[in-house]
UniProtKB/TrEMBL annotation:
Main location: membrane
Organism of origin: Porphyromonas catoniae ATCC 51270
Pfam families (UniProt xref): CarbopepD_reg_2 (PF13715), Plug (PF07715)
A molecular function GO annotation: siderophore uptake transmembrane transporter activity
InterPro entries according to UniProt: CarboxyPept-like_regulatory (IPR008969), Plug_dom (IPR012910), Plug_dom_sf (IPR037066), TonB-dep_OMP_SusC/RagA (IPR023996), TonB-dep_OMP_SusC/RagA_CS (IPR023997), TonB-dep_rcpt-like (IPR039426)
Domain TonB-dependent receptor plug: 124-231
Membrane topology: Multi-pass membrane protein
Protein name (database record): TonB-linked outer membrane protein, SusC/RagA family
Alphabetical keyword list: Cell outer membrane, Membrane, Signal, Transmembrane, Transmembrane beta strand, Transport
Database matches in PROSITE patterns: TONB_DEPENDENT_REC_3 (PS52016)
Subcellular localization(s) per the UniProt record: Cell outer membrane
Annotated GO CC locations: cell outer membrane
Domain of life of the organism encoding this protein: Bacteria
Amino acid sequence: MLLAGSTSEQVKATRVADATTLSTNAQNANKTKIVGVVTDSKTGEPIVGAAVRLKGASAGALTDIEGNFELKASAGDVLIISSVGYSAKEVRVGKTTILSITLSEDTKTLGQVVVTAFGTGQKKETVTGSIQTVRPMELKVPAANLSTAFAGRLAGVISYQRSGEPGSNGADFFIRGISTMNGSEPLIILDGVQISKADLNAIDPEIIDSFSILKDATASAMYGTRGANGVLIIKTKSGADLERPIIGVRIENYINTPINVPKAAGAETYMRMYNEAVRNQGTGDALYSEEYIRNTLAGTDPYQYPNVDWYKEVFKNMTYNQRANMNVRGGTAKVTYFMNFNVSHETGMLRGRSKDFFSFSNSIDYIKYAFQNNVDFHLSPSASIALHLNTQINDYHGPITANNGSGGVNEVFKSIMETNSVANPIMFPQGDLSWYRWGGTKIGSFTPGNPVAMAASGYKDTFESTVIANIDYTQKLDFITKGLSFKGLVSFKNWSFSNAYRFQTYNSYMLASPAKDANGNYNLTSLGGDPSKPILNSGGSSMGDRRFYIQAYINYDRSFGDHSVSAMALYNQDEATINNPGSDLIATLPRRRQGYAFRASYDYAQRYLLEVNAGYNGSENFARGHRWGFFPSIAVGWNVSKEAFWKPLQNTVSNLKLRASYGLVGNDKTVDQRFIYLEEVVLSGDKHRPNFSTGFDGSYESRRGPGFTRYANPQITWEIGKKLNVGLDLQLFKSLNLTVDVFQEIRSNIFQKKETIPNYFGTEDAKIYGNLAKVKNWGVDVAMEYNKQFNKDWTIQARGTFTFARNRVLEYDEAANLRPALRKVGSRLNGLLGYAADGYYIDQADIDHNPKSTLGNIAIAPGDLKYKDQPDKDGNYDGKIDADDRIPMGFPTVPEINYGFGATVQYKQFDFNFTLQGQANVSLMMKDFHPFGTQSRRNVLQWVADDYWSRDNQNPNARYPRLTLHDNRHNQQESSHWLRDASFLKLRNLEVGYRFKFARVYANATNLLTFAPFKLWDPEMGGGRGMSYPLQRTFNLGVQLTFK
């Protein structure tokens, strides 16, 4: 980051600052100019961004990239020179006006303060919980969303991205894996206030001052109900007392290209494979003749013998995007401010074919605006008020694919992947602007869409805005007792969303027989549509929500010699209201939470550490008597390296701290239903309502009474997580830092629908929920960092993270007669279940001598998949293949292992950095491939054409089974045949830059290389057919400027 900050830590992190006068006072005539240089006492290299101030005054300067500074002072004045990681020094000004000053490293203050629960600071040496802090500069990658920068950079975080579609390209992430079936997302806090993942993705890294992840019970128990899945805390920057404001500007232009787009087979390959499928099926369907194939390849008539590259018609392989950022930082001794404005413009791969046919454009045009304004009023040495305003505006224009406003570019991409090149032309020459004759085809009663028509026929405009406003007041209460303080916070958040769409219904035609009439015009058969009816559709929707939050706490922090104590007592209250016109009554009721939090800590000489925390929280989701939960935790620590016996090892092992914590956390996130302790009664529909008759004198009329869709359970209460953490913090040779944490959580009382109530009980499909399930989650996370400055020219910083998290279901309410392999107890969350494939049937005898399949819709034949019969709970085989023969297989679809490593190298004004990231212990299931099925558009992907079973290629390891004309449900079952290893290693980020005095220019790229055993599409996207909008590779050029 180029922007210089108010503190030397921030300036040093940016490595860009020059000698800038900070004084707000007029210069006196008797002061002379003092110039100097500040260097490291060991290496002799210049210290960038060191603060040089006059003692007893606000005047001062910051050292530039060469360590130089200048300011005006008088003989006898005292200069205070300080920089993060160094011991401060005082120098008295004498007769000389040229100074050379050296600073010595101070390991006691290096990385001293860590942001903990509710934004309070704690000395790193006394932290007993599992907390990782991340430098904001490490999150500055050319990514559209902040969450996509997490992968491989944060120990304990499992992260992956499923889509590259603009507006939907954020990452999913979990802290230490998944411990429950309900609500596994972590809590995200911005400046003390809860925000959503969408809000997080809108944050510009330029505004971040500190970034912390709270992982164990001690770190998160104070959040009670909200902190069960870990907490991510972001604190934004504040202003500074500066003579002149510092202005930072960043401009980036970048190119996106898709990664690993699935390829379709060519026209000839498709037609010959279709003919083979017809012969295999024996249905007598018409074949593509050799004449038809020749005419198609020769381009004889593009309407009668079409050959369309649908992907090139609709999508492009390169998009141009821009980002710009500007921030201002400054203030006086009384008022300081920080303002940041960011705008980004994303386009998509869609060509915007609508302009070729209609008067509108539906190309993707996605503009995001973000504004952060922080103002601090220093009312007195003991009182201050801070105002924070965060505003986000998202303006999206893009395609829709249906006349109700649904669908989008993802559906267009899927349509292209499913449409073969010879199905139909884009459109026929007959027609006019009011009634285009789009090309179409028919498969039985199914009419596939035309990808170009789908992509060109409609658009939507969505407008989304978020405003988060905070005001907090801090008051030191030293007049009562030293170390006592009070802080109160009030926050309001408003989110609104509106959507308007326009859609022009397209009408498809296919060639009749004969193809042309006597005049040479094509004979067309309509596949739907009526020219006399309106073809324009429009509509829209709007919704919003509001959140009001208050928080107040008393804090005490004081030292008595070697004894340090701190304590905090906090109250908070939260109310959220959803305004959605389509919601039912219950959904519109305010959602409320209330809570108290307590913390106390003690340390002796920063050597022996003790901390206790507790959250006492109330939730509306439970009945009276169960609404409040108490969640305590305790942690201990031992700074071994501070013992006297450790002194001989200080130069080798400069820091060694052992930590352990245990505590309870709560979760009130139920199964997407509110007030599940109450019954749910319905007065409409027939499914849940009993019949009764009314009438008299022989006249009877059948009616239905009220029914139940959910039965009451007033005993429903909190999910409880019991978290255990053992950690080690180690520093070797004052340059290599290593943090290792081993963790385990037992999550009990998990909300689950009761599965063991027999049908004769009369509940039918009505649900009964209870605290019935239990899950164990355990693992290890590791963070490593190495910093070494070899001389004034060369510096290297290397980093690495490793996270392993595995879960197992310990208890689950399920039928007792299930086969062992089908039971959830003992399985993993997000695990895969399928049939064990045993190659292909080779002939009819093989079919006759194996268990009979009940899974198919057509007769089993050679070339179909063969599945293994599985034993029941008594070890018996039933001689058939059905749903009871499924078994767990592979790894979960959420990776158990995430890792990353990288380095930053600086040589003089040049800098270079890279990050590699990978995931392992993860599987994906390919499914729903029907090349000639009735519910697909009869397309063949190249990987199928390259290796499928046939009578000429009876390969027992062929990728695809025999070809059939229709859906073959037997072969499409989830099985080990379709199971794939989804692990990968990616070159996530590569950057090179050059620093000038007031600027830095750089070039970087993301997702440059992928090493993976699975090649058909990007394995990070997960299973299915790979027909989603692909992930993107980014090439970016940027410049950062600083004005002072």
